[in-house]
Amino acid sequence: MFSKILIANRGEIACRVIKTARRMGIATVAVYSDADKDALHVEMADEAVHIGPPPAAQSYLVIEKIIEACKQTGAEAVHPGYGFLSERAAFAQALEAAGIVFIGPNPGAIEAMGDKIESKKAAAAAGVSTVPGHLGVIESPEQAAEIADEIGYPVMIKASAGGGGKGMRVAHSREEVKDGFERATSEAKSSFGDDRVFVEKFIVEPRHIEIQVLGDKHGNVVYLGERECSIQRRNQKVVEEAPSPLLDEATRRKMGEQAVALAKAVNYDSAGTVEFVAGQDKSFYFLEMNTRLQVEHPVTELVTGIDLVEQMIRVAAGEKLAFAQSDVKLDGWAVESRIYAEDPFRNFLPSIGRLTRYRPPSEGVKSGITVRNDTGVYEGGEISLYYDPMIAKLVTHAPTRAAAIRAQAEALDAFAIDGIQHNIPFLAALMAHPRWQEGRLSTGFIAEEYAGGFHAHAPEGELARRLAAVAAVIDNVENARKRKISTQMAGRPVVFEHQRVVRLGAQHLACEVDRTAGAFLVTFLETDGKPAGTHELRSAWHPGEPVWQGAFDDETIAVQVRPLLNGVALAHRGVAVEAHVYTEREAALAALMPAKIASASGKQLLCPMPGLVVSIAVTEGQEVKSGETLAIVEAMKMENVLRAERDATVKKVLAKPGDSLAVDAVILEFA
Questions:
Q1: CB contact at 8 A, 166 and 312
Q2: Which of 40, 211, 403, 606 has the fewest CB atoms within 10 Å distance of its CB?
Q3: Which of 3.90.1170.50, 3.30.428.10, 1.20.210.10, 3.40.50.20 is the CATH number of 4-103?
C-alpha cells in the first residue's frame, strides 16, 4: 500500500479523497493555485505544493507541475479526482514514465473510452446498444447541419472530449445546429483543449441513467448498481439518486452486464461509469464512459456501503477486488443535491464572493437516516471566478425513496449560506415538486417545469400557517430579549399583548401567542376572533441564528431566518417570504404605507454575472432586432449568450473582449 499520495485536484473532491486516505493511514499532498492558497483542501492535506496562477491551464492542467510536486514531496501515487487531468491518457502515461502510480484506469482504457467518438465505436463492437448518430469528426457548422438533417431532429451536439455538461447543445433546426456547433466547439476548446464535436439523435423525454463499474488489475469487473441523473439544467446534473425509480431488476441486470462487458473489452481496471440514455419504456442506449470517479459517486457509496475512493486506491496498489458481483447488494435509497454558487432567481447566473456564513446541516446517522455533506469550502472562504461553481454535495440516505427525499428537504432547509447567491431555494422547491416525488423524470424536467424560470412562491394554506407561527414565535423571543436588555423597562411591569397580526407578503394572519414551559402555543383566529386551530412549537432558537430548528406540533422542521427592518425573511421548502409581526394598531398603520417600487433602466445591457467578455457582436450605431446576439460572457467555464430583449439601436459599446466585468457592469448603451 502507498504511504503518500498526491491529489491533482481542488475543492470538494480533493477533500473527499483526503478523508479516505487519512482513514487508510496514507499521507496526502495537495496542490494549489494562487486563487486556492487558503482553500480547505490545502488545510486538510499533510503537505501542499503551489503550482501556479489561477487559470487551470497554467496550474491544475500542467502535467509537468504535478509530476514535479510528486518528486518534491515523495508522493508515490496520484489521485486525479474528476475533471482537470482525470481523463487524460497523456497524464497517466507521464506519471508511469516518472515511476509514479496513477490512481485510475490504464492509459489504454482511457484512450479507448475517454474519446466520446471512439468509445461509441468500441461500444458498438462490444454489442452494447448505441444511439443513432454520426461518429466522425465534423469540420464545419454546414457539415453539422447536413448530418443533422440526415439523422432527424432533434439532435445533440456534443464535445468528443467533453464532460460535466460542457460543450453540449440540443438543436431542433438547421439554424440551431449551426449556432450550437459554434458554441459547443468554443466551450470544448476552452474547457478541454479539444474542439472536436459529434452529432447524435436526441431521444425525446430521455432519462439519464448510469452504471458504476469497478475493475481491478486481475481481470475482475463488477457493477455497483445504477444512478439516475435526469434532473439536469443546461445538460449539467443538478440532482442524482440511487437506485433509479425507472428500472426493474431485469433491466438493471441487463444494463449492468453490458457495462461490465464494455469495461472488460478495454481491460478496465479502476472505478468508472458507463452512461446510458433511457426511454420511458426502459429501452436504453450507450452514451459514453467516464474513465474516472463521478461527481455523484456518494449515492452509490451509500446504497452499497462501498467506499469507491478506497477501492480505487487499493486497485492501483495491485490488490484484487475483495468482493464478487453476487456480494453487491443495494440497500435503501440515496439522493444528492449539488449546491452551486448561482442565482436561481436570475436564470441561475454564477455568483462569486466571500462566504460570510456557511453552516451546513449536521452530518451523521440518526434514526436510520444518513446526512452527508461533501464540500471544499468554509465560512469566510472565497468562491472564485476561475473554477466550477459547486459549493457542496448534500446527500441523504434512508430506507425508502420517499424518506430520502424528505430527509433531503429537511437538510436543505437547515443549510445556511450567506455572502453569495446559491441554488438551495430551487433545490428545496424541487424536493417538494409532485412530479419529482412521483419519479416521473426526464432530462427536460427543469426546462419543462420551470419554463419561465424559477420564482419564489408565496406560502399558501398549511405552509403559510406554519411560517406565520414561526414568525410569531421569533417575534415573541426577540421582544422578550429586548425587554431584558432595555434599561427603560427596569422596574416596570411587563405588559404583553397576546394577539398579533402576521403579514406574510400580501397575506394577513391573526394569531395569539402563549408561552408555556418549554413551548409556545400559537392559536390562529378567524376574522370574527374565534379560534381556528392551535399549534405547539418547540425550539432552542436564539436571535442571530440563521436557522430556526425545532418542532411544529409533532413534525421536526427547519426554517431559514434573515433579519429585516421591522421583520424577518423566512425560507422553507423552496418558499421565501418576508414576515412582519404587528399589533392590530401597527398592522392598520402599516397597511397605509406606500410600497416602494424599484426603477429599471431598459437603455443598457448589464453584465448579469461576474465574468470575462468573450466577444462583442455589435458596433456603435448598429440596429439590432429582438433575439439577436449582443455579447458573450464566460463565467465558471460556461459561455452565456446575451441577446437583445427588443429592437434597438446601439448607442455606445463600453466593453471589449478580454474585459473582466463585475455583476451589473454596463456592456452596451442603447439610444
A1: no
A2: 606
A3: 3.40.50.20
Classify the C-alpha dihedral 236-241-245-249 as positive or negative.
Answer: positive
Q: Cβ–Cβ contacts within 10 Å for residue 601, how many?
A: 9
DSSP 139-194: -SHHHHHHHHHHH-SSEEEEEEEEETTEEEEEESSHHHHHHHHHHHHHHHHHHHS-
Amino acid identity of 154?
P
Quote the CA–CA distance of 267 and 112 in Å, as a whole number. Answer: 10
- Secondary structure of 229-280 as H, E, C letters: EEEEECCEEEEEEECCCCCCHHHHHHHHHHHHHHHHHCCCCCEEEEEEEECC
What is the grid cell recorded at 401?
425513496
Give the model's pLDDT for residue 485.
Answer: 77
On whether the CB atoms of residues 363 and 344 are closer than 8 A, the answer is no
Long-range contacts of 179-186 (CB under 8 A, 24+ apart): 179/141, 180/144, 181/138, 181/140, 181/141, 181/144, 181/145, 181/157, 182/141, 183/639, 183/641, 184/157, 184/158, 184/159, 185/159, 186/614, 186/639
pLDDT score, position 131: 81
Taking the whole predicted model, whether its pTM rises above 0.85 is answered as no
Rounded CA separation 298/304 (Å): 10
- The pairing of beta strand 236-242 with beta strand 648-653: unpaired
Helix (H, G, I), strand (E, B) or coil at 665: coil
* Long-range pairs for 401-408: beta carbons < 8 A, 24 or more residues apart: 401/241, 401/245, 401/333, 401/335, 401/439, 402/437, 403/333, 403/369, 404/241, 404/332, 404/333, 404/334, 404/335, 405/335, 405/431, 405/436, 405/437, 407/335, 407/369, 407/371, 408/335, 408/337
pLDDT at 232: 96
Measured CA to CA, the distance from residue 637 to residue 384 in angstroms comes to: 12
Average pLDDT over residues 38-62: 96
Strand order in the sheet with 27-33: 47-52, 27-33, 4-7, 77-79, 101-102
CATH topology of domain 604-670: OB fold (Dihydrolipoamide Acetyltransferase, E2P) (2.40.50)
Reported confidence tier of residue 596, pLDDT bands at 50, 70, 90: low
Q: What CATH number matches the domain at 461-487+495-590, 1.20.1250.20, 3.40.50.720, 3.40.50.850, 3.30.700.30?
A: 3.30.700.30
Say if CB 445 and CB 464 are below 8 A apart.
no
Note the pLDDT of residue 662: 84
Break the chain into its structural domains and give their ranges.
Answer: 4-103, 132-201, 210-449, 461-487+495-590, 604-670
**Residue 562's beta-bridge partner residues?**
569
Catalytic sites, residue numbers? 288
Task: Indicate the CATH number for domain 132-201.
Answer: 3.30.1490.20
Would you call 221 helix, strand, or coil by DSSP? strand
Concatenated DSSP letters of 505-570? TTEEEEEEEEEETTEEEEEEE-TTS-EEEEEEEEE---TT-SEEEEEETTEEEEEEEEEETTEEEE
Tell me which residue of 266, 311, 298, 229 sits closest to 120, measured CA to CA. Answer: 266
Q: Do domains 132-201 and 210-449 have the same CATH topology?
A: no
Residues in CB range of 122: below 8 A, 6 or more apart: 112, 113, 262, 265, 266
In this structure, whether the domain defined by 210-449 belongs to CATH 3.40.50.2300 is answered with no
